[in-house]
Amino acid sequence: MGTSREEQFFSEAEASLPLLGQERTVEGVFEGMLQQRLRLKTNLQLAEWLGG
């Protein structure tokens, strides 16, 4: 962690991705986003959008 922007990014990611936990890496944020996407898809019963 170097800059205040990095700290802000990870703080905001941690607030919106509760599964992130202590893994403050870009990979951890990406994994948290995938988990959040899956949870929303399941809870809202959304069909996959393939774009196009």
UniProtKB/TrEMBL annotation:
Q: Which domain of life is it from?
A: Bacteria
What's the protein here called? Answer: Uncharacterized protein
Its source organism is Marinobacter antarcticus
